[in-house]
Amino acid sequence: MTTLRSHPVACALFAVIALGLLFGPLALNRYGLYILSLWAVTTIAAIGLNLTLGYAGQVSLAQGAFVGIGAYTTAIMTTQGWPILAALAVAVVLCFAIGWLLGYPALRVQHHYLAFVTLAFSTLAFLVFRNEEWLTKGIYGIIGIPRPVVFGFPTTRPLPFYYLCLGSLTLVSLATWWLVRSPWGRAFVALRENPIRALSLGVDTRRYTLMAFAIGSALGGVSGVLYAPLVEFVDPTPFALTHSLNLLMMVIVGGAGFFFGPFLGAIIAVLLPEWLRFAQGYYLIVYALFVMGLLVWSPTGLLGIADRWMAERRTRAASAARAAAAPTLEKEGV
Amino acid sequence: MVNFINLVVAGLATGAVYALIAIGFTLLWQTSQTINFAQGEFAMLPAFLMLAAASLGLPLWLAVLAGVAMSALVLGAAFKFVLVDPMLKHGVLPLAIATMALSIFMKETVKEVYSAEAQSFPSLLPDGNVAILGAPVSLQSVGVFVTSIVAVAALQLFIARTRTGRQMQATAQNPTVARILGIPVERMILLTFVINAVLVALASALISPIYLAKFSSGETLGLAAFIAAIVGGFNQIRGAIAGGMVLGIVDNLSAAYISTQYRGAVPLFLLIAVILFRPQGLFGRAEERTV
Amino acid sequence: MRTVLEVSGISKHFGGIAAVDDVSFEVREGEILGIIGPNGCGKSTLFNCILGQLTPSKGDVRLDGQTVTGMRPSDLNRLGVSRTFQLLQVFPQLSVRENLILAGQEHKGTMLSRLFGARDAGLTGEADRMIAFFKMQHLADERAGGLSYGQQKLLDAAMAFMAGPRLVLLDEPAGGVNLTMLANLKDRLRAINVEQGATFVVIEHNMDFVMSLCTRVLVLAEGKVLAQGTPAEVRADKRVVDAYLGH
Fold this sequence. Notes:
The complex is a heterotrimer.
Chain A: H1 8-23, H2 30-55, H3 63-79, H4 84-106, H5 113-131, H6 133-136, E1 142-143, E2 149-150, E3 153-154, H7 158-181, H8 183-193, H9 195-200, H10 205-231, E4 233-234, H11 241-254, H12 261-275, H13 282-297, H14 301-332
Antiparallel strand pairs in A: 1-4, 2-3
Chain B: H1 2-32, H2 39-42, H3 45-55, H4 60-88, H5 92-114, E1 129-132, E2 135-138, H6 139-161, H7 163-173, H8 175-180, H9 185-211, H10 217-232, H11 237-257, H12 266-277
Antiparallel strand pairs in B: 1-2
Chain C: E1 3-14, E2 17-28, E3 32-36, H1 43-51, E4 58-63, E5 66-67, H2 73-78, E6 81-83, H3 96-105, H4 111-116, H5 124-133, H6 149-161, E7 167-171, H7 179-196, E8 199-203, H8 207-213, E9 216-221, E10 224-229, H9 231-236, H10 238-246
Parallel strand pairs in C: 3-8, 3-9, 6-7, 7-8
Antiparallel strand pairs in C: 1-2, 1-4, 4-5, 9-10
Helix pairs in contact in C: 3-5, 3-6, 6-7
């Protein structure tokens, strides 16, 4: 897996953005804070999907449904007086378990069956959200979702809630970074790049893929847990298949398999409706065209383009170095 | 009992349409490793093309033909040259995701350009009932079923009996060997895309009178096609037909006897059942672990 | 000396054609067995049957007495069998050292312990030793995708030995490798055979490579065993000469 971390310019850029995220919002109005919070929450779901798609190479069309499960769990529990941490625990366990249950049979088969299973599950989840009125209040939705109190601080106002979202995003990112840098991360790269070779080295590709999918789905749930108090109202519409497709596009556009891909993809997806507001419903059309074009040119997304450019510079430097060292290498017979 | 027969016949009708869409989907996968996630939208668009042609004053039968022709051009040839060919070199997965974006594009375009409302679609088939096993069954359902079967039979005949058809079959089974044998593989692949476009156009014309033409029909039709293809055995045309029929009938029966609200969940349960108990599908061969 | 690998009566049918027809042989500890034969004689199919990529239509494979026919490749690997590939060799995004660590990490501990253990699963030392053994020190941090074909082949071989296997199957290790590199490869393979005491089975087309590296040779033709013996015996066998010249 490649990151741009090793490059000093990238580090500086990262520092600037981090500072901006920490202090910039003090100058933003309510709406700006909402957009930024939405970005943070969406990125969490995108990070989860990136784990499934970018690292384990599997298509999940149910990430939106998992966000919905997290959101409804939180909405139902917190309106009944449960603390948000309890809702978080339930959502994570539920999404992980469902991910495991869906993935276990689907990954036994060769083809991309997980895509179809998750597609079908998306439909089922939406139907449950819409039909089980006794639980989810159906199409009327659940209103008055309370904002949580964190370490004694209420988050009712936009700024504190934004910091909650940012803090959660940071925690999720750190956890994912740690996962990806562990031996598991190496196994993920292996099974994505060369699954047959990986199998022959003893990598249990099926088990690792399943874990990536289950963890990715659980992260979708985490995103939902924050989404519910952000918008303070949940109904089935945001969790339909379209949202799963949007999340997928986000990860692709940012760059699947790149650590910062989801961040980049999410900001584009959240801001695009704003920028193209004059175009009304046409923004999705433009977005879809953009995605198709991008895929033809660079299937590894925007960060893929950046990475390729950097790799070219590296190879040019390495070739030059090799040319200079050529006489010594030949002597060693390598 | 009367109700049951009605349901089965209606199920056969929708099932036959699902089968048409599933066959095209399977053909694309066989010949060019294309997983077309926009297949549902492919079966949604032609109806709108036909409605547009009809609104220009063409009589229905001519509008339908025009729609089929436009489909062949846009969903067949243009799809292949503009999207599939440039993407194939990147692999199966990127192309599959590109078709997902395509599905969004098609859905939103129809919604914005034509209408977000469901449109009624006139039928080429006569109204009225016919008696089957003593039950009055809609002529519409029977007509849809018969038309689809005829189309599938024609396709099978074409594949098995004509030279071009056999070449297409060879290309589907092993493009490398086919090339060596001198078969114009590129042209055969193009032919599969065009055949798919015609099949989905036909499906669109047959299903729209029953379920109305709406920009969002692609979701259900697509899901049905994928599940039908998998249930039948991903790599088999016979399987796509069987899968479509099974899905259509189970869908109708469960809607009536179990729950209409969860009708949309039928594909999931069917799929899980197949994966757990017969992963190669009804007609598929048990897979070897590939090298 | 114990028999490490015992192949009995392996047959593999595709449709009506027998790609492999009733093949039986044994490989004893420390041996280097070469399998040769004209194109299409069933070498790769036989390999894949032994390695669990294909399930044989008939016959058994036994590893140190334990029946392993049709076992999954990853399970077989954990029993101490590893292989190299003709194509699809290394993991391009990872560095050479990382490739080697990956090759060994699945043999240490459980999946869960790997998550909470050290980043390199404690294998950096072994990886570096392997790198030194195969004389690739200057490449240790290079992305494997940037290596030359011959270097990748060498890495592929090194990876097969990371977990200290008892049986290594090499699929055309000499294919497409230049002469200097070939000599190096042969030398390293012989050295590691002695050092680790592993048993090798090698499929090859390159006659010189096989004859100079292997202790015993098996000749396949049309899916059946044509002859087996020492390189000298096989080279002199008239049937072998005919089979090769006849094609």
